[in-house]
Specification:
It is a single chain. The protein contains seven helices and 18 strands. By secondary structure, it is an alpha+beta fold. The protein has two domains: about 110 residues, Rieske Iron-sulfur Protein (3-layer Sandwich); about 180 residues, Alpha-Beta Complex (Naphthalene 1,2-dioxygenase Alpha Subunit, Chain A, domain 1), CATH 3.90.380. The strands form four sheets. Strands 11, 12, 13, 14, 15, 16, 17 and 18 form an eight-stranded antiparallel sheet that branches. Strands 5-6-7-8 form a four-stranded antiparallel sheet, with no helix packed on it. The longest helix has 15 residues.
Length: about 375
């Protein structure tokens, strides 16, 4: 009897990749931010240089929660239980009531790898929390050169939702018009793994305002505004996707970047958030003046408008995701998109010990699949 292939079994929720459980604005200087990540109680704070530090909430001395009653003092977190101070490396550097000559190096915790980019705080979750084995493209210098400063919002909860459901939707061609009511004109690049190791697709679509509204009058009014665009979408990991939408020349050729971030918040639930930026292409005198005087131009305004649209556009998706159940034996159609290759691609993010296949001495070993590479600066 042939067993179900590993990549067709129910996927894990806590997978290995970069995730963005916090916005940059969630961690302010001088304060501790408490949060849960991949089943761990964590704290985040900023050191004296303003860099984000993420540590386990539990103090390694006697187990107190350092974020409840703790304080940030001189770029270190002070535990409320015994007044021990911990720096960005997780090491205890002094105690308020400890002899200064006493050695404290054995009281430490391993810090989590955190990167601040795209108005977000990304944390690496993998076999080794200090050694990421996948790049974080948004943190590359110059990634946002030529674009407006990225903006984000609080996003929306997805209860319950598996972490792979949102990105699986991206390769599901039929869902774009069945759920979003977009019009598909052309598939320029069929969904599939690209040379960079990402899963990508390129299409030409038309978006209609208010198409998902339950009210007929809103849908009719929305028909007055339709926007055709070139849609380049790349899935970088289970919790990260990057889309570049280019409007037609009649619409000014405006370019919009959306970064879609999905983070598991519990064994059953996720959270989704969008980061938006607009290419700086409007070079009118009034826009130049606004940038000089106000520090923001038309692109900054448009980025917030598009952010609200993108967040709202998940209405139909949320309805599907939160009531969907994973099927190990789905009955796909050719029009659905490459569901099986996508699930094979996703398996590389699974923890090695999750639902392993039994050893088979006669089986040929599968070739190693490359990790997703850095995407080029859009």
């Amino acid at each position: 009897m042939v067993s179900t292939k590993r990549y067709m079994r129910p996927p894990p929720q806590y997978v290995h990749s970069w995730f963005a459980p916090l916005r940059s604005s969630d961690v302010v200087p001088g304060k501790i931010t408490n949060f849960t990540f991949m089943g761990h109680e964590l704290i985040a704070f900023r050191d004296e240089g303003g860099q984000v530090v993420v540590l386990d909430a539990q103090c390694p001395h006697f187990g107190a929660h350092r974020g409840v009653g703790g304080r940030v003092v001189d770029g270190c977190v002070r535990c409320p239980f015994h007044g021990l101070h911990f720096d960005r490396t997780g090491e205890c550097v002094k105690g308020d009531f400890v002899d200064p000559s006493r050695r404290l190096g054995h009281i430490k915790t391993v810090p989590w790898t955190a990167r601040e980019a795209a108005a977000s705080i990304f944390i690496w979750h993998g076999v080794d929390r200090q050694r990421p084995d996948q790049p974080l493209p948004f943190a590359e210098p110059g990634f946002f050169d030529g674009w407006s400063p990225p903006v984000t919002n609080a996003g929306r909860p997805l209860r319950p939702t598996n972490v792979f459901f949102p990105t699986e939707n991206i390769i599901d061609i039929q869902h774009f018009y069945a759920v979003h009511f977009w019009e598909l004109h052309e598939i320029i690049k069929e969904p599939g793994e690209d040379e960079d190791g990402n899963f990508s697709a390129v299409m030409r679509m038309t978006w209609k305002a208010g198409a998902q509204s339950p009210y007929a009058v809103v849908r009719r009014l929305g028909n007055a505004y339709q926007s055709q665009f070139h849609f380049d979408i790349r899935i970088l990991g289970p919790g990260m996707a990057l889309s570049i939408s280019t409007l037609t020349p009649e619409q000014g050729g405006l370019q919009l970047m959306n970064i879609i971030l999905i983070t598991p918040v519990s064994p059953t639930d996720c959270h989704i958030r969008v980061v938006t930026s607009v290419k700086r292409t409007v070079d009118k005198p009034l826009n130049r003046l606004a940038r000089r005087v106000l520090g923001a131009g038309l692109e900054e305004l448009l980025s917030r408008v598009f952010l609200a649209i993108a967040t709202k556009d998940f209405d139909g998706d949320e309805m599907i995701w939160t009531h969907r159940r994973f099927l190990a034996n789905p009955k796909p159609l050719a029009d659905d998109g490459p569901l099986i290759p996508y699930r094979q691609w996703c398996e590389r993010f699974w923890p090695p010990d999750y639902l392993p296949d039994p050893p088979d001495a006669d089986a040929e070993p599968e070739p190693a699949r490359p990790k997703p590479a850095l995407v080029e600066n859009a």
